[in-house]
Amino acid sequence: MRQLFCIFSSLRLTVLLLACSVLLVFWGTLAQVDLGIHEVQRRFFESFTIFLPVIPWHGHWLHFPFPGGYTIGTALLINLACAHFRYFCPSWKKIGIVLIHGGLAALIISGFLTSLLQVESQLWVSEGEKINYSESSRDNELVIIDTSNPEEDTVISIPLSLIKEPGVVEHAALPFQVESLAFFPNADLGLRSQNPNTPPTLATRGAGVKMDIAVMPKPVTYKDNEPNTATAYIKLTDADGEMGTWLVSNMIDERFPAQTFEHGGKTYRIALRFKRYYTPYWIELVDFNHDRYPGTNIPRNFSSQVRIVDPEASEERPVLISMNHPLRYGGLTYYQAAFANSDTTSILQVVKNPSWRLPYFAVLAIGLGLITHFAIHLITFLRKR
Amino acid sequence: MKRALPWVFLIIGIALLIQGMLPKRYATGFDVKCFAMLPIQEGGRIKPLDTLARNTLILLSGRQSIKLPDGARLDANTWMMEVALRSNIADQIPVFRIDNADILGLWGEAQSKQKYYSYLDLEPHFGVINEQAQAVDVEPQARSVFEKKLIQLHESLTLYHKLVHSFHPLTRSGDELEMEYAVWLESIHTGLDAIRLQQEGKPFDEEALNRFMLLADRYLELAKLSEVGITPPPPSIGKSEDDWNNIGQSLLDTILVNHLDPITLGYAKLLTSYNTGDVDAFNETLTLMHERTAEEINPGKLKFEYFFNNFQPFYRSLELYLMVALLAFFSWLGWARPLQRSAFWLLILALLVHTFGLIARMYIQGRPPVTNLYSSAIFVGWAAVLLSVFLERIYKNGVGSAVAGMIGFSTLIIAHQLSTSGDTLEMMRAVLDSNFWLSTHVVTVTLGYSAMFLSGMLAFIYIVRGVFTRTLTKEDARALTRMAYGTLCFATLFSFVGTMLGGIWADQSWGCFWGWDPKENGALIIVLWCALVLHARLGGMIRQRGFMVACIFGNIITSWSWFGTNMLGVGLHSYGFIDRAFWALVLFMGSQVLLMMLGLLPNYCWRSKLH
Lengths: 385, 611
What we know:
The complex is a heterodimer of chains A (385) and B (611).
Chain A lengths: L1 H7 L2 H20 L1 H14 L3 E9 L2 E8 L1 H19 L7 H23 L1 E8 L3 E17 L7 E6 L7 E3 L7 E8 L2 E5 L15 H4 L2 E5 L13 E8 L2 E9 L10 E4 L2 E27 L6 E12 L4 E8 L4 E3 L2 E9 L4 E8 L5 H27 L1
Antiparallel strand pairs in A: 1-2, 3-18, 4-5, 4-13, 6-7, 7-10, 8-9, 10-11, 12-13, 13-14, 14-15, 16-17, 17-18
Chain B lengths: L4 H17 L10 H5 L2 E4 L2 E4 H13 L3 E3 L5 E3 H10 L1 H4 L5 E2 L3 H5 L10 E2 L1 H4 L3 H10 L9 H20 L9 H26 L6 H20 L21 H11 L4 H15 L2 H16 L4 H13 L1 H19 L4 H30 L7 H23 L3 H20 L16 H34 L5 H37 L7 H21 L5 H24 L14 H18 L12
Helix pairs in contact in B: 1-17, 3-4, 8-9, 10-11, 10-13, 11-12, 13-14, 16-17, 16-19, 17-18, 17-19, 18-19, 18-20, 19-20, 20-21, 20-23, 21-22, 21-23, 22-23, 23-24
């Protein structure tokens, strides 16, 4: 036990872990050329182990396991804590060191928290429009929406993990069974007349049949500016038997024939779409502005004049969101990200991260610690001379 | 003699500076300097024509002046005068650099000594150049050398074409141009009348209408083509800080204000007098044009920019840094005190000039010192030199001067290499448009780079002196290690604080404290490496020599973070894509690996005995 403590608190372990971090971060940077930032983040930094291609072998790479971000982070935390108990002796001269390492621990923890809790999505809003949800640009959901009530819709959201493999899903609020016949993480959709050699469609109702859409599966892309077209065939069955099979895809949106059906006197709509996050308030875009540097097309600033309409908190006020000046409201933060439709649609990045304040405190502690520590050293050094 | 030595070198240095400040003399009598100071708006800011001339010439030819076939040299401003006022002559000046055999092969020309071609030389081949350039459809990162060079040539030709059409509609002579303007003024009246009558369905003067439409179309084409604003909008229409009018817009605005813009007319008069050789009329027109623009903008700032361009402070300090480094090296062979004193005094002079250049750029651009890769090179050098001055003041052994000279020299060379892509005082994209974060995050991170390179350079001196000479005493070695250690601590502090400030900026701007972007990762690796080295030293895992070798490795890491990450072409920070520098980077890293191996040679291979 004592020996274990010695190992976990040793400086050698610190150096080893730091060396591993350097390698991991370096590899994680190079891998972004092929995998894109998000996939790298998932595989390298938000994982316990990663298999790295190390040795070329007959045209292939031999992969070796390497500690991922979670492993190194946890080990560093343990190392830090053990070393603190082993070496700590109270002295004003050491205050810097304590601050630095305390801050570091907080920073590592905030990294864990962020990767677990942070949710990112985008809000597209056109001038004059009111929106109360934002959409993920990567995650999808299968939704069945009861649209019978003219006042409000009831949305049943089914996570994609449940339909990735063929199988049946049941939900208490749905009077029928949902069955996934096939799922494609990425695919091209086209008209069958233009793609004659594609496998026959499984769809029996909805846009897939009406437009005779052909599905051509393709590999998942990791490019940050290229979304994956998630597509599936969904069969619905009730007590009387099969109701039909629909082709659903995040590409099939309002431009396509409506995918609606009647059941038990109610009207439903089925769709596979980018995952939506609803808020109890609305964001209305009053005006979008896009300034350029004079005589050029170099953008200087984007800003959205919006209005928050929150009936629950009976709050309604105008807000200006611009580059470097986000809006924080209802636990979410809205950042000006981009624009579309010749400057009439604003795209806001929406981030939910309950732990966003932690890194600020951590950085403050480490910064202060570094300054005190090096200042104490410098003063002693100059005194000696 | 020995006492006077520092003075002698200082006077040589000052003489070099004064020589750089002297205005250029022109034999023809035309006031080229006054012409070069005419204000224009391009790339989002108002600048003297001089800046446009220099940057364009560098883009086309890679140089600031051209060697003519008869051996004479043409400076950027005289070239600009030909482009703006005598395009038939300008078309014959060889400014387009082509050094790729495959491009010459497009029209069956074998590569020869000739590197520069004129517009007229290339005119017969426009068809094939255009056709081939259109056929290149891969992303910039994936292009072959031939494709890159081809696109570059195509862009150069377009740029030149636009520039020729930026000051007046092309005509055969100055008289003809002034006549055209007179006809335009007159036909506005009759033409508008004719249009009104036509719309009302009444009989109208068809000839007047046609003449008006013909000229209006011609000016509309110009308005679409040129990217250089030559005159502020007429006072009744806009303000001088708005979009300036290019030649086409200015002529079209005549319809609204009913008189020709004085600057536009001025360029026509310059054209006439330059072509007829009327020096007095030429210079007089220039004076009038300056009087007109002085009503709208601050001419002092343009004059200053002209002086800055002409003085080339970074080039001057580069020369001085080289002298400093040499003096410091020689001081270790003998005459230590006087040579070290000379080096130090010159170093101060070089730093002053360097500082002047840095502040001048900040004044012209209205921005903190680091805004792009070019300015980061200037700043990395400046900060490292400043730190070395302190080291030299403390240790007084020539080491500070030597590293300052070497870092100052090499970073300014890097900056020079980076300056060939156009105006280095470019506008900031919206995301980066925050003076607060530019001056905190970017400056601190760059200070971290400076300190990393400085510690690496100190280690370089330690290893080279130790392995190849007997001059490294135990005391020197200890002093060098102390310097490198202190600098590395400084680097740790600034790299860490800078990186974290970047995190805060990112959190403020797009809600993500840390996004694992290549540039962020690069900075993180620096911090991790510093922490590793400091802990390894603390735990006794490395001693003096190991520490120095680790500092050299710091050079590799820092150069990766500074340049390598930009070459990946991914992420938010990849604003300065520079594949040209790839091999330079590989070479640098290779040299550092070699140095590390030298440093790891067993003790008996070292000529200085430290043990």
